[in-house]
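[recover] target loaded
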């Protein structure tokens, strides 16, 4: 009689990566963001050619040329595709991108009320970034290394782009955000999670901001392993005019208000 297969550990090998990037009128930054993602996907393919990678750009209520930029990438690279929505919500956009990648909303089974998941969820990694951000070349490679070492979620670090940013504001930000391992920060621009953990934690909330923090809280409350690292830092926009309430731009603006007035 054949032995029953043992359940796979949390840290088992990743076979598929689904990248989700929400965008709302990001024509100015989108080209560089997609080029960086392409390099990261190429780097992973070089080391792990058997891992399938797909990128979904969720165009949320875009009125600029963002759709044309994504269409150009999708036409040239089958790993890229666009999803057009009208949510004006980062949380809803991220959740829609995950669904479009084939990872659906968790269903409850009666009467046990347990999550039902696709068999591949434990082997699928959801990597999240933003359309105003540029991931490093090792971004996906590093996330998968953590995932296969046992992490259910990876909290990466970010650095504001100094181009066009007030140097005093950048200095203040760096003082408050040292580039350390095991840092306490949560950034949607640099976040990865195993699909099975994502589903068990209820996925991204359909809210306009802080959907990343809400999901991480739910993951931790369910005792999933959450790892924070500075080893694959993402460069993100240093703009202070926020696209989402309580988002990164809002936080930078609050720091700018604490700066002393210019001399003279």
């Amino acid at each position: 009689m054949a032995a029953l297969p043992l359940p796979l550990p949390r840290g088992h090998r990743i076979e598929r990566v689904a990248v989700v990037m929400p965008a709302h009128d990001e024509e100015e930054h989108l080209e560089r963001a997609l080029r960086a993602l392409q390099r990261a996907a190429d780097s992973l393919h070089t080391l792990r050619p058997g891992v399938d990678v797909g990128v979904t750009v969720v165009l949320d209520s875009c009125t600029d040329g963002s759709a044309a930029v994504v269409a150009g990438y999708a036409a040239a690279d089958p790993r890229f595709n666009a999803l057009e929505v009208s949510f004006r919500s980062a949380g809803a956009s991220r959740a829609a991108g995950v669904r479009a990648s084939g990872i659906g909303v968790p269903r409850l089974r009666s009467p046990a009320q347990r999550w039902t998941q696709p068999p591949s969820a434990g082997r699928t990694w959801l990597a999240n970034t933003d359309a105003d951000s540029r991931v490093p070349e090792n971004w996906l490679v590093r996330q998968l290394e953590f995932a296969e070492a046992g992490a259910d979620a990876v909290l990466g670090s970010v650095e504001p782009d100094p181009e066009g940013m007030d140097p005093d504001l950048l200095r203040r930000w760096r003082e408050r955000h040292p580039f350390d391992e095991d840092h306490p920060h949560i950034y949607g621009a640099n976040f990865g999670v195993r699909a099975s953990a994502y589903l068990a934690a209820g996925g991204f909330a359909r809210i306009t901001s802080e959907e990343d923090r809400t999901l991480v809280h739910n993951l931790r409350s369910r005792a999933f392993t959450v790892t924070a690292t500075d080893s694959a830092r993402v460069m993100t926009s240093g703009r202070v005019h926020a696209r989402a309430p309580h988002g990164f731009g809002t936080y930078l603006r609050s720091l700018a208000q604490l700066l002393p007035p210019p001399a003279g």
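[recover] notes: DSSP finds eight helices and twelve strands in the chain.
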